[in-house]
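S.,

Sequence below, as promised.
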Amino acid sequence: TARYAMSWPKNAIADGRWFWEVLTDAADGGESRVLWPVELDEGEDPLRSVMDACHGICGTAILDNGSMGYSPFVTIGFSIAKDSMGNPVPVDVSNWEGLCVTYTSDAAPMLVLDLGDSLAEVLRYGLPQVSLPKATDGVAFSQCFSWSDFKLPPWLRDVPQSWRNDVGEQAAKQLVAVRFRIQAYMGEYKFNLKYIGAKADDPVVSEHEDDSKE
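The prediction came back faster than expected:
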């Protein structure tokens, strides 16, 4: 994750390990979970067994509202860097130029730029994101996005003045984590996140763009 970083925080350690999370859903009364195809590994990299089995990160998002008043969700993602205590820290990754992704998913997912707890609270958890289409029947969807493609969600109101313009570019200068989010009606949705990487480091950007048009 340190590749192309504009500036690296003092004493920060490159991270990049994948995690999954339903904490926000559960905190609001949701009962969503992920059903993995194999048993998870023990230790610091539990999704390694999933990656080996799927050649990606695959599973079934079991979305359940529980007592929650909005659509349930799960996310998987990776943090960019961490401090000596193991806490995620923001990094300027402007030189990534954006993100490229390849996946299959029974529900339309989103790519979300996580800015950490403090900024998430300021933005009322309406973080910069791009919406992606469903990709079913085993046919993967590939596309690259520039930072300028990432926008605040349309439901967010009273946006702070400092976040009304150049949202994606601002987020890239203080990025904490990248999240692949599946949010939909109650049900079961299979997914396989096959590839995600920096746009600047993608040798087949044109191929991704051709796939998306096709």
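Residues 40 and 167 are 36 Å apart (CA to CA).

Coffee later?
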